[in-house]
Amino acid sequence: MESINLPKQPNILISYLRVGKLLYYSLALFIIESIVFWHFFKESLKQDNRWVQGILLVCFLFSFVHIFLVVMDGWSRFQNYRRAKDQFYEYGFQNRIAANYIGSKCQRAAALVAASELGIEQKVAAYYEKRGVKWHHFVPYFMVKDPLFLFKKAFWSRTFLEKKYTPRFDYKKLQLELTS
What we know:
By secondary structure, this protein is mainly α. It has helices spanning 12-19, 21-44, 50-91, 95-99, 105-116, 121-130, 141-145, 153-159, 171-179.
């Protein structure tokens, strides 16, 4: 195991927000979309155009359901962050650990936030760059490889239903001990 000089650890809420930064931007957009589409749908009920009402209802439902999907995805990415942080702390940077989180932009963000809080972000970022990951790779790789991903149990459990991970280390306490 390589030695990690533990930087100052942020509040867990800050880490949670950093991990899901992109998700929470989209969450705000889905909330705004839901409000707007609901307003237009209610207004459309005053007229007698079922097609417009149907389209607006579908748009509202799409946005509204995505609010919950984004929240669940954020929770799952936070569990990835917790696991990655423990793994990087215990074993130092290793390609096989970083590879576990290469599948999507959000998983890579979770690993990068965990790595940054351990002072090894550059190593993880360099690994992803070496593997051909670009800044604009937002669509998860599995979605490109398997267009029927929606019908796979693994997609639902890994994307939205990640089990709660309890960290094995108290990083604030460790950071205080290492600086004493």
